[in-house]
Amino acid sequence: MLDPMPTFGSQRTTTPSRETGIPPTLLWIGCGSCSGESMAILGVDGQATDFLDLLEHDGIRLLWHPSLSLEPLAPIVYRVLNGTLPLTLLCVEGSIAMGPDGTGLFDTFDGKPKRDLVYELCAVADYVLALGTCASYGGIPAAPPNPTEAVGLQYSDGQPGGLLGEDWRSRKDLPVVNVAGCAADTDVMLLAMRWLLAGDPDPAQLDHFGRPTFVRPCLSGADRPKCGTAQWVGHSCYGCISQKFPLSRELLKWKEARKCASELLLT
């Protein structure tokens, strides 16, 4: 678990207010050069309108998203950390880089380790949602030899810990909610967001890996079952609990890939 000195909100003297009448807010931050969940939710798997519907029809104020926001992140971060802008839901995609040598300087924001920014944002958010295997458990970047010293928000190498530590809880007394998958299923991501933004989520709805019970196989759907049954969701089928992939399963279907390539060459 990291216990860094505050660097971004070091001048913070108040905690963010939660006055009635203020709409729920959402801030989305990418780490470890990952944008898989952003790409999935904005069109590769789902439709951009699905996420925009969440913002418009559910009355959610989007503070920042790497693909949707025109303004820079820094001013918003400082308002959140200084207590003038409440943060209801923090969404994190991508693994947390702790290297080199524990400095966190492989992934920076404003010249400082991004892991420190994420740590401080987690401290002021009502709820924290880890989107995808990397943010949840470290994912592929954490595979040996793990040159970036990658970890998940609350897990590392398949065990509790990570950036925040096993006992960490949000302002609303909830651990990090993990939506496993690579990329995570769009419908499940939106369902998890609505579940948290509605307020008072039941911790009993999380399993022992911090996943909501409604999480389903990361590449599945009603019309495309693909990677197996719900009992293996985010675990053995795509190694979503950690960086360990089953040796008995091909990661790529080479025959299908070659067939697609041949068809492209003929068109």
CATH-defined fold name: Rossmann fold
Percent of residues in β-strands:
5-15%
Whole-angstrom Rg = 19 Å
Q: Major sheet: order of its strands?
A: 2-1-3-7-11
Count of helix runs: 7
- Name the average pLDDT: 78
**Class inferred from helices and paired strands:** alpha/beta
Estimate the global geometry from the Cα principal axes: globular
Listing every helix as H and every strand as E from the N terminus to the C terminus, the arrangement reads EHHEHEEEEHEHEEEEHH
Summed up, the domain count is 1
Biggest sheet: strands, sense, closure?
Answer: 5 strands, parallel
Number of strands: 11
Describe this structure in words.
The longest helix is centred in the last third of the chain and has 13 residues, at 254-266. The protein starts with 24 loop residues before the first strand and ends with a helix. It has seven helices and eleven strands. The model is unreliable at 11-20 and 224-258 (pLDDT under 50). It is globular and about 45 Å long. It has helices at 36-44, 48-57, 73-81, 114-124, 133-137, 186-197, 254-266; strands at residues 25-30, 61-64, 87-93, 96-97, 108-109, 112-113, 125-131, 150-151, 155-156, 159-160, 177-179. It has a single domain (25-266), classed as NADH:ubiquinone oxidoreductase-like, 20kDa subunit (Rossmann fold, 3-Layer(aba) Sandwich). It has a five-stranded parallel β-sheet, with helices on both faces. A two-stranded antiparallel sheet has the order 4-8. Strands 5-6 form a two-stranded antiparallel sheet. Helices cover 26% and strands 15% of the residues. The chain is an alpha/beta fold and 267 residues long.
